[in-house]
Each structure stands twice: as C-alpha cells, then as structure tokens.
Design goal:
about 0% helix, 4-stranded antiparallel beta sheet, about 300 residues, mainly beta
C-alpha cells in the first residue's frame, strides 16, 4: 500500500517461496477508489476471525486522522477479497489517534488487539482488545509507554513468543532514507503492564553507535545529525510490522521477521516501488530480542 499519499490502493501479492512475488490485484478494497484522490489511507492489517469465519482488515483512514479515535474496518469471506467497509471501531484508550494503527491476533486464543498512538496528551502508545466478534472495543486497554515530546513513535509490530508478547516500535522516519530505530517492550498480558526490555534498542546505527534521542523536526538523521546523507541505521528502514511464520516441520520453532519500508530506495524514484527490508529476529536464552544485523540474503527451512 502507498502510505500517506493520495490515490492510495491496497495491493495483494502472493508467493510460494518469498523470493518471487506475483501481483494479484491492485485494489483489494475497491471502496477506497471513491475518494482516495482527496483522502489518504495506509497501514492495512488483516486477521482471520474463526468464530465469524471472516477476514478483517483494519487500516488507517484519513477520514479519522488526528480527529477522533475511530479505526477503519473492512471484511471479506476470502483473504483474496474483495474487502467491504464496515462501521468503524471506536477505540477507548485515547481520544485522538495519530499516525499509527495496527492489529494483532493472539495465535493461541484468537483475541484481536489494536495498537495505536494517541494525539491527545500525554502522547502514548496503547494496546486495546476487541470483543470476540471484533465489532467493538472490549473496554480493556493498557499504555505501552508515554512520550511527552515530539516526534511520536510509529510503525512497529507485535509478536507472541513462549507466552510473552513483544512490541517493537521506532522513531518516525518521515520517508527518510536512513531508517528508524527499534525499541522492544514486553508483557505477559497485552492489556496489562508493559516493560521496556533491558538493552531495548535493537537497531543501532550502522557504525555501532546509539542514535540520538530527539528528532523534533522529523527530518534529522538520527545516526548523523549533521548530514542526512551520512550514516544509516543498521537496518535502513522504518519498521511496519513483525511477521510470524509457522513451519510445517514438526518441532520446528516459529520464525519472527522484522519488516520495514526502505524509503527512497526505488531505482525509478517512485515511492510505491521502494524496497522493503525483511530480517529474521534472534533471541537470547532469556527471550530478549537481540541486536539486528543486516543480511543481504538468508534461507528459511519451513517444510
């Protein structure tokens, strides 16, 4: 999906090996074409509700941007679409949602959670659960962290590993080429208490240094504040989710993948053609996410 731009559509690609991808449709949610010349859409997340037998797409809509706490929702009987808009869901953990909105489905019990950042002060990142039919908030939510100054953190992703929930989140990169950092928070209950991981930063600057803490304008290279063309992050991308891959082999552990947008990486300069970064995550014996390292390529044995 092209994010934060006009003429946004949700595309669908498929792959049998995650190397070769085929574009199946450029408009899996046709209703966006009604007003996408004037309204921005981005960050679609899709989950399957087993009880309803439907696929739910939760996405960020310019209709509600920085105005209220509504989350746009569309449903389909098939992952291939088409998806059809449903009444939006009002989140209760904040009055105004800013630029981040995502959905995570607990792989064990099927509970859906919405993760968002508030525009109403204090700026905070929130996790909120939905009712079993995913039609509304359950009224249960928690604050992952509070950040009292700009810029807000955005993007990021959620995963569950060995009974622990993880949130990764990074600084707003604002279409920058140097990327954003990645901080890790954990909880045993998504709407309970969240704790910042010791050594929470897992995407250092490529030279091994820590990024600067403040980027008030959103246009400063956090790894080289005096040169926007200088040192990038180790993974020069702004994170947009975590992908959990379950192998078909018995006794094979899940694979957890960071993925982010590598803004300004397209050879033709068109933003919709920017590359992504996909990086397998590693954990220590205590379950802490380890510092990420750039990989030109890697192989996953899944079946």
């Amino acid at each position: 999906m092209r994010c934060c731009l006009r003429l946004s559509y949700v595309h669908r690609y498929t792959s049998s090996d995650m190397i070769s991808w085929k574009l199946r449709t450029t408009n899996i949610l046709p209703e966006l074409g009604i007003d996408n010349a004037k309204v921005s859409y981005w960050m679609p997340n899709v989950g399957y509700n087993k009880k309803k037998g439907k696929f739910f797409m939760l996405y960020w809509s310019g209709h509600y941007r920085f105005v209220n706490s509504m989350a746009a929702v569309a449903t389909s009987d098939s992952p291939y679409g088409p998806f059809v808009n449903q009444p939006p869901i009002q989140m209760l953990g904040g009055k105004v949602i800013s630029s981040t909105l995502g959905m995570f489905v607990d792989p064990d019990d099927g509970t859906a959670y919405v993760r968002f950042h508030t525009r109403d002060p204090p700026l905070r990142h929130v996790m909120e659960s939905l009712l079993p039919d995913w039609s509304a908030s359950s009224g249960h939510y928690s604050t992952i962290f509070v950040k009292n100054d700009y810029p807000w953190y955005e993007g990021g992703g959620v995963m569950k590993r060995d009974g622990t929930f993880y949130v990764m989140i990074g600084t707003d990169c604002c279409f920058c080429q140097w990327g954003g950092d990645a901080l890790v928070f954990t909880a045993t209950n998504p709407v309970g208490t969240w704790t910042e991981q010791v050594d929470a930063e897992v995407n250092y600057c490529a030279d091994g240094s820590m990024p600067i803490e403040h980027n008030i304008t959103g246009t400063v290279n956090l790894c080289d504040k005096n040169n926007i063309q200088g040192t990038n992050f180790t993974i020069p991308a702004q994170q947009f989710n975590i992908v959990t891959i379950t192998p078909s082999l018995p006794n094979k552990e899940n694979v957890y993948m960071f993925y982010g947008e590598r803004f300004r990486s397209s050879p033709d300069g068109i933003k919709a053609n920017d590359f992504q970064a996909w990086i397998p995550l590693a954990f220590d014996h205590a379950g802490a996410v380890q510092k990420m390292a750039w990989m030109d390529s890697f192989t996953l044995t899944l079946e």
